[in-house]
Design goal:
Strand content: 15-25%
Shape: globular
Largest sheet: 7 strands, mixed
Structural class: alpha/beta
Distance between the termini: 49 Å
Radius of gyration: 21 Å
Strand order of the largest sheet: 8-7-9-10-11-14-15
Number of helices: 14
């Protein structure tokens, strides 16, 4: 089994560009077009805008290295407005009208799933950006997921570290709460399965409607059940609302967090500040010494320079490295195959391991990571009104998986919250 490296991909492109002893200028070649939608407005724009910057950095990097197959890369994309109903028409237009050569997904489960039937009908490779367990109901063999949840059950893998930590520390009861949206329901479903397998008693298990603004009734209802742990599946607005309500009402529990999207964003971290202390939540990259993959710091330096004064995530730790990496995988596969052949590209991605800015990536069942790496991190000793504290190690401690651990859990939550 071959490992695809960035150097090998560059050499492939260079060999094609110099074929016949003549230097081929990519500027004179027809571009290879990559099409996608992205969440540039609406509730997930806070993640979509940084992702687009990362993708543009990759496009510039690959074009400087000779492009794909000796051709420059061009993007064709549309704002999906964080609206799943927009997705089918966008991808139909990309493929049938814009005649793109390759497609990748928008950000998030709810924006990936609606594209699947169209992509499958066209037989195209589909690199996706942070969809949780999308392919279980489709079974599409040309789908690949850059988020490091993994086989055989991504939803279960997502919360396994949280539940393992709970059990290791004597937790007996748990409350589950999540927004009524596809991602959050997958996350809570996995937590439910893990809790039941671990013998935890589920004392609260409810959903809330998207758009909910007042979370105090939910926190009060959870408090009434007196759980040892609280697992939350939420998108950014809900994450902010739940964390604020928990702090205002003095939620007393031994573990709190789990599947809260948004706690990874620098702007939300700065806004919530010390209210984050003690929360144990999923993440995918933090500046801890165990996660210094080759190329990631160089990429982040480029990203952070571009993100200045744009009103977006200034650090780019969460989504941007993976937005760069899913294009790395696709680009390396195309250059290695030597042609735009969807079947061959898909086979190559399935059969090889890739070096990326987020580390080594190998795909397994359903196009998920063969070896999952969903991190559980704990916010510790976070101060108010201090963005720079999140640039370095020591504030988001990696607890799970063990091979990436960078520190120890402060338990219970109420102790960590008051440090």
């Amino acid at each position: 089994m071959r490992k695809v490296t960035r150097l090998a991909a560059w050499l492939t492109a260079a060999a094609l560009a110099f074929a016949g002893g003549t230097v081929v200028s990519t500027a004179q070649e027809e571009p290879i077009k990559i099409g996608f939608s992205m969440t540039l407005t609406g509730g997930l724009a806070v993640a979509g805008k940084p992702a687009l910057i990362a993708m543009e950095i990759w496009r510039e990097d690959i074009n400087e290295a000779g492009g794909l197959l000796g051709h420059p890369v061009e993007f064709v994309y549309y704002d999906d407005q964080t609206n799943p109903s927009e997705i089918p028409s966008i991808y139909s237009k990309l493929i049938d009208v814009d005649k793109v050569d390759l497609v990748v997904s928008s950000y998030g489960t709810d924006l990936i799933a609606p594209a699947m039937s169209i992509i499958m009908r066209k037989g195209m490779v589909f690199m996706s950006l942070f969809g949780l367990d999308v392919n279980t109901r489709f079974g599409y063999d040309r789908y690949f997921q850059i988020m490091p949840a993994g086989a055989p059950d991504p939803s279960v893998n997502w919360s396994k570290g949280f539940i393992d930590l709970a059990v290791e520390n004597g937790v007996k009861t748990i409350a589950l709460v999540g927004t009524d949206a596809e991602f959050a329901q997958h996350a809570v479903s996995g937590a439910r399965k893990n809790a039941e397998s671990a013998g935890l008693e589920i004392v609260y298990d409810e959903s809330y409607k998207p758009g909910t603004s007042d979370f105090t009734p939910i926190i009060r209802a959870i408090q009434a059940t007196n759980p040892d742990a609280v697992y939350v599946g939420s998108y950014p607005p809900g994450t902010v609302g739940i964390v604020r309500a928990a702090n205002e009402l003095g939620l007393e529990t031994k573990m709190f967090g789990g599947g809260m999207v948004g706690a990874q964003y620098a702007t939300i971290q700065e806004s919530l500040g010390s209210m984050l202390n003690g929360i144990v939540n999923y993440d995918f990259w933090v500046p801890e010494p165990t996660l210094k993959f080759p190329g990631v710091e160089e990429f982040l330096a480029k990203y952070q320079e571009r993100a200045k004064d744009q009103g977006i995530d200034p650090l780019g730790h969460y989504l941007p490295p993976y937005a760069y990496a899913y294009l790395q995988v696709l680009g390396d596969a195309v250059n290695a195959v030597g042609e735009i052949d969807q079947e061959k590209i898909a086979a190559y991605i399935r059969e090889n391991e890739f070096d990326t800015v987020v580390g080594e990536v190998k795909f397994g069942e359903k196009g998920e990571w063969a070896i999952p790496r969903t991190l559980q991190v704990q916010f510790q000793n976070v101060e108010d009104n201090n963005l720079d504290q999140f640039r370095t190690a020591g504030k988001r401690i990696v607890l799970k998986p063990e091979e990436w651990k960078s520190g120890d859990l402060i338990f219970p939550y109420t102790d960590a919250k008051n440090k």
